[in-house]
Sequence to fold (507 residues):
Amino acid sequence: MEQLNAWFTELLSGNAIFTANTLGYYLDGLGSTVRLVFLSLIIGLVLAVPLAIARGSRRKWIKWPVFLYTYVFRGTPLLIQLYLIYYGVVFIEGIQDTFLWAILKDAFYPALIAFTLNTAAYTTEIFHGAIKATPRGDIESARAYGMSRALMMRRIIMPSAFRRALPAYGNEVIFMLHASAIASVVTIMDLTGAARFVYARFYAPFDAFLFVAAIYLCLTFAILYLFRYLEKKLLAHLKPING
Amino acid sequence: MKKLLALTLLGVVMTTATAQARDTDEVRLAIDVPYEPFVYRTPAGELEGFEIDLGNELCKRANLDCTWVEQSWDGIIPGLLSRKYDAILSSMAITPERENQVLFSIPYYNTPSVWITRRDRDIDINDKDALEGLSVGVQRGTIRDSYVTQMYGDTLDIRRYSSSQDVANDLVSGRLDLSFEDYPLAVDTFHFKDDDSEFKKIGESIKKPVSIFGKGAAMAFRKRDRELAEKFNQAIRDVYADGTYEKLMKQYFDYDLSLPVGEK
Fold:
């Protein structure tokens, strides 16, 4: 560790911008970005599964509210949703006296809520499409076995739908990572926040933003690689035999 | 219009006669709006304010044909370097980092910075232990940002905003405990001098250390444009010397922000 430190100091000497201090900001920013994106994706995913099933329901009073939700959240910019949740809720009468304020007071949770609701809306539509695309034969076979609707959902429809949704969902994960760059407008020191801070301090846009772009690129490649691996594993049975 | 054209033509003839660069007769000045009372828009959309008046006066004296360009703060130096305009006249404080990038004129004013909190809060700014864990809002990339980062980086939770209005919002809502703000900007955004204001100033006004707060606000030029900077320097000395500066200042401020001329 000592050695690494010395090596780092050596590497950075004679460089005004990338000192151990500013790199610390980038590192903290990386932590915030990863935490924010990871949590919103996980919670969004958990929300999206029942919502996707509800979205495909035949009952209008189940189907339409979900449709309305995905329609609104996919139809408006995430930045606006974030502004509404961060700055907007302040103006709700009496909100500061409720337990909710403890959560909303921080910048992190409003951002997490906005991101989660946004990704849940997109993921719901992705899953809904994948469920709808279940081959009729699969469903008829399941019926022939006498499966109940719930069992059929669990054993036949959902597993195959998840597999089909995988490539589209991989894109959503990457979009979410990139969209998270707006977190810095509500004072969160994420990667972009760190870059803006360094930029504002040294007026060196290329150094500050190219560096952070490289970090985002690495994260994107890591996500791509992960989904490649998952697809290869989970969709192996769909590959052409001599492909 | 004809008169203006004639004047411009005259200017061109005169400047070419003295073999000066072509771009010195038409000067584009960048300004970040709004920043009352330094610069703001009237309901009719006209630019007005102390810096607008001062800038126009300086241009008149330097025989320059100036136009104003609006540019948000965080891109104002890159815009200058990429020739979107020729000078910045936007309350920019002289700092060593900025001096690496641009050429400054002599400063034309200097204002202190102040701590602001909610009227119902009781905070002793000099008691470092009591400040532990409190949050402070600053405008990103300003000298106030540098000051709290350097002096209170370990004590206060620093939140950086794009505008001081956002800081005010979060101070009202209780997301923030403190704000550190430029004095005139604080007067304008937080109205802390009014009796019914939700905010108050705490502690002393701060102008030091010079290494952070700089030597005052000055115009900024590209480093190569020495001649242009010198013209404005002379004009600044002139408006100070004949009392025009003081007249303009009293039109907008009830406090003194003038500097001993030539101090740098």
